Amino acid sequence: MRQQGWFVLVFGLLQQAQLVQEVPVAPVAPASVAPLRKLYMGRPIAPTMSWEGGPWLMRATREKEERCSELLAALDVKPGQIVCDFGCGNGFYTFPLARLVGAKGKVYATDIQPEMLELLKGEAKKHEGAGDIVVPVLCTETDPKLADASIDLALLVDVYHELSDPAAVLAALKKSLKPDGQLAIVEFRLEDPEVPIKLEHKMTKVQLVKELDANGYVVAREFDQLPWQHVVFFKAKPKEAETPASKPGSSKGLPSPPPSPPPSDRGERR
């Protein structure tokens, strides 16, 4: 009887195993692999912020958080000047710049996303006279589509770190600057862990100056009074002082950048 009982038990287990094998199982999808991020001089290039994030650019709290009015004052824009709002988005800075340059000036509002420029055109309807001053420009990832020696000031607010080909853009911008023209680059401070922005959308001042130096620029002046951002003004180096620029994806012959802070849960804003 004991042997018969063992036989029944083993037979039952075998039947259950067979039933399990016959049940169809959905195939497991392979784990998704994040695309490799392109490096520029040791720095991962951040993805471009989508036009769908336009409302965040226009948030009501932005002046309190970033003190944008102080940045505008620091730019020292004069009436009649020709300014480029590079990576203008939906025009948060474009229209204040238009008021500063006045009717005799121009603001070239450039962006690589046509949807952003459509949003900008919608915003323009809220600003009387802006249509005569603001010129929307659909640029490419390497060409800002600006005339040579035409720009007094090119403003890049939270844009430079997203350029897919910094060397090409910086070379084109340099050609577009007047002899005394300047770039004003504004970036969230990677050095400060309290700045509530994702790490990939922040830069150290050391890294920023190193990259611009490699592309034929020198620091003209700095403004360090904003709560979250660096503001560094650059002008073109004399031609004899220029050095070859690094290509994206390579850091050959260049010192390693300072280590980034460890990842944190902060910075879900962008």
Description:
The protein has 270 residues and is α/β, with parallel strands linked by helices. It has a domain at 62-239: Rossmann fold, CATH 3.40.50. The protein contains 8 helices and 10 strands. The chain has helices spanning 2-22, 54-57, 62-66, 68-75, 94-101, 114-124, 166-176, 205-214; strands spanning 39-40, 43-44, 82-86, 106-111, 134-138, 151-157, 177-189, 202-203, 217-223, 229-236. The strands form 2 sheets. Strands 3, 4, 5, 6, 7, 8, 9 and 10 form an 8-stranded mixed β-sheet that branches. The chain has a two-stranded antiparallel sheet with strand order 1-2. The model is unreliable at 6-11, 17-34 and 250-269 (pLDDT under 50).
SSE inventory with pairings:
Elements: H1 2-22, E1 39-40, E2 43-44, H2 54-57, H3 62-66, H4 68-75, E3 82-86, H5 94-101, E4 106-111, H6 114-124, E5 134-138, E6 151-157, H7 166-176, E7 177-189, E8 202-203, H8 205-214, E9 217-223, E10 229-236
Parallel strand pairs: 3-4, 3-6, 4-5, 6-7, 7-8
Antiparallel strand pairs: 1-2, 7-10, 9-10
Q: Short description, anyone?
A:
By secondary structure, the chain is α/β, with parallel strands linked by helices. Helices cover 29% and strands 21% of the residues.
- Quick check: average pLDDT? 84
CATH homologous superfamily grouping of the domain at 62-239: Vaccinia Virus protein VP39
Shape: globular
Work out the number of β strands.
10
- In the CATH scheme, the class of the domain at 62-239 would be Alpha Beta
Helix content: 25-40%
Order of helices and strands: HEEHHHEHEHEEHEEHEE
Portion in beta strands: 15-25%
Termini gap: 73 Å
Count of runs of 4 or more consecutive helical residues: 8
Which stretches of 5+ consecutive residues score pLDDT under 50? 6-11, 17-34, 250-269
Architecture of the domain at 62-239, CATH level 2? 3-Layer(aba) Sandwich
Q: Tell me about the biggest sheet?
A: 8 strands, mixed
Structural class: alpha/beta
The CATH topology label of the domain at 62-239 is Rossmann fold
Radius of gyration: 27 Å
